[in-house]
Amino acid sequence: MSAVTAIETESLTKRYGAARGIEDVTFSVAPGEVFGFLGPNGAGKTTTIRTLLDLLHPSSGSARIFGLDSRRDSVAIRARLGNLPGDFGYGKEATGREAIALLARLRGDGDLGRAEALAARFRADLDRPLGQLSRGNRQKVGLISATFHEPELLILDEPTSGLDPLMQEEFLALIAEERERGCAVFLSSHELDEVERVCDRVGIVREGRLIAVERIDDLLGKARRRIVVELADPGGIETLRAIPGVEDLALNGTHTSFSFAGDLDPVVKALAVHHVRDLEATHPSLEEVFLSYYREGGEPG
Amino acid sequence: MSAQLSALVGAHLSDRRRSLLAWGLPLGLMSAFIVAIFPSVEDSISKAVQGYPSGLKEAFGISQLSTVEQYLQAEMLSLIVPLALGYLAVRAVASGLTGAAESGRLDVLLSAPVSRRRLVAAGFLATAVELAAVLVITGLLTGLGSLLAGAGLAAGPALAGFANVWPLALLFAGLGIIASGFSLRTSVVTGAVAGALVSMYVLDLVGRLDTGLDWVRYASVFRYYGNAIEDGIDPLAFAGVTAAAVALGALGAWLFDRRDLAG
């Protein structure tokens, strides 16, 4: 595997006339890293992917993959990557085996051994015409076509849409194996649970702009925690109210709840003067963090 | 031919295998019927043509209809086969570009290390083969009709007549690629090129009917089509139209390479 950065964009911008595409998108993905690309429909995820793949030409800025220019060296780049479009389509009459065999020939590789093994693993039917398959089963064929040649970079647009929970688990296991192999993965997804489980870092895109790029742990760590404390003396709530950063403070019987971001030390010290019967601090899920970016229009405090 | 190009041409032809019969059979059966009935209608047709206005005969390239070859030219090769094959050409080439873009296939193929120009070249080559195959099927069925009915169709002139359609039809494949450089909608591409096909035919017809408007025929590829079944293939026109088709295809490939492929 190459030690060169797998993906590196610099102020990548794509406009469709007056309409917005993506604006000033800058990020990088290292070899062996799984990078999640999050955003609602229309935020610019697919535009970013299509620009990386040279299906769309950037209005300004640049994208380099393995150090190669995404526009000028597109063919050389595609020899080293695997791509799964959002809805794998190949026509109705061809079978999955025919589609994968053609892709193998285009890659100068006639060996379909790994494709067969992946088909068995994902229980994919490669012998039925693709037009007769459900979306999930077509997606399995697409996953195989993206991974059978052991690429150095996987670009996956909503890869698990249509897959049943068992196959989603199998997919996550495959991504982990690809990472172990040194393959970089750029993963666009709505399934925040799977992103949280498999990605090292995420980028959050809103209205065409990349508004955050963080390690998952950092993102969750920086987010507001929900804290519920049971005090023997409910009057302790006033102590908490005085701490900077405490928000949404509420008293419910003997239980006091509030949200707090950052180092918990001032909270713990303030509570230490009271009789604390119970204390629970929960990190938000990635989904909650993601939603807070959209609700609050910026980084969640 | 490179391994990639042959793989793409093979896949394109495999996708289009049904269309070979869907187009070749009806055209061939119709053509076979035309030559088969000629012996029984020969006298009446010949007399009828003598009464046609000379301008009309000139416009449709009919001097007389006293042989089965002349009848085949008038009934099939002057209008139906060229228009049908021209339309088939744009349908075939569009299926590999706009049709592939609409089905998502283009995204999958362009995940592999294939240049867009090679993809276009493969579509153009496959269309050239498909057109030739449809003409072969049509010609074979026509010959069979003549044999069964004892019409006495001469193989050489008939072969020249059908072969002469090939470069003309291929030119519309080239135009189809150019249209794909501007639109990824199959209906727009086929509609625009079908319009050009009919317009060129009408321009040629108008130029033939009115000698004062002969110059408009230069805007039509039909000016170079001629009557190969009687006069033989004009090698210069055949090579020139083929070269023009390739040049249009190359221009179209350049346009297709530069355009965005929106999902």
What is this structure, in a nutshell?
The complex is a heterodimer of chains A (301) and B (263). Chain A is built from 11 helices and 14 strands. Chain A has helices at residues 45-52, 74-78, 96-106, 113-122, 135-147, 165-181, 192-198, 216-222, 237-241, 265-271, 286-296, and strands at residues 7-16, 19-29, 34-38, 60-65, 68-69, 81-84, 153-157, 184-188, 201-206, 209-215, 225-231, 247-252, 255-260, 276-282.
What does this structure look like?
The complex is a heterodimer of chains A (301) and B (263). Chain A has 11 helices and 14 strands. By secondary structure, chain A is α/β, with parallel strands linked by helices. Chain A folds into 2 domains: 7-215, P-loop containing nucleotide triphosphate hydrolases (Rossmann fold, 3-Layer(aba) Sandwich); 224-282, 2-Layer Sandwich (Alpha-Beta Plaits). In chain A, helix 3 packs parallel to helix 5. Chain A is elongated, with a radius of gyration of 23 Å. The two termini of chain A are 39 Å apart. By secondary structure, chain B is mainly α. Chain B is built from 13 helices and no strands. The two termini of chain B are 30 Å apart. Chain A binds chain B through residues 16, 46, 50, 53-57, 74-76, 78-79, 81-83, 85-94, 98-99, 102-103, 105-108, 142, 145-146, and chain B through 3-4, 7-8, 11, 14-15, 100, 103-105, 107-115, 258, 260-263.
From the coordinates shown, what is the CATH architecture of the largest domain in chain A? 3-Layer(aba) Sandwich
User: What does the main sheet of chain B amount to?
Assistant: none
Largest interface: A-B, 37 and 25 residues
Task: Please state the structural category of chain B.
Answer: mainly alpha
Tell me about the largest β-sheet of chain A.
6 strands, mixed
Write the topology of this structure.
The complex is a heterodimer of chains A (301) and B (263).
Chain A: E1 7-16, E2 19-29, E3 34-38, H1 45-52, E4 60-65, E5 68-69, H2 74-78, E6 81-84, H3 96-106, H4 113-122, H5 135-147, E7 153-157, H6 165-181, E8 184-188, H7 192-198, E9 201-206, E10 209-215, H8 216-222, E11 225-231, H9 237-241, E12 247-252, E13 255-260, H10 265-271, E14 276-282, H11 286-296
Parallel strand pairs in A: 3-8, 3-9, 6-7, 7-8
Antiparallel strand pairs in A: 1-2, 1-4, 4-5, 9-10, 11-13, 11-14, 12-13
Helix pairs in contact in A: 3-5, 4-5
Chain B: H1 3-15, H2 17-50, H3 54-59, H4 68-77, H5 80-95, H6 98-103, H7 105-109, H8 116-149, H9 155-163, H10 165-180, H11 186-209, H12 228-231, H13 235-258
